[in-house]
Design goal:
The protein is built from four helices and two strands. A two-stranded parallel ribbon has the order 1-2.
Length: 79
């Protein structure tokens, strides 16, 4: 939460401190057995990218939903 809402969080316009906090959290989750991390807050992908934690897959549901919406709108896929 500090990485998003903290004084030096993403919502305050900062990126380096949130990135550090999120990388640490991702590494801890992997150490604890996580096989993937869902970026379930729209602000997280602003600071944390796949290249920041290459050893664990990051899943960005906002990106997946946006791509699906485009594919449906273009008639390339059905709901």
């Amino acid at each position: 939460m500090k990485s998003i809402f903290g004084e030096k969080g993403i919502k305050a316009g900062h990126h380096s401190e949130p990135k550090r906090l999120l990388i640490n959290a991702a590494n801890e989750l992997k150490k604890d057995g996580a096989e993937a991390i869902i970026l379930a807050c729209t602000e997280i992908p602003l600071a944390l990218q796949q290249e920041d934690v290459p050893t664990i897959p990051l899943i960005n549901p906002t990106k997946i939903l946006a791509q699906k919406a485009v594919d449906v709108a273009l008639g390339n896929e059905n709901l």
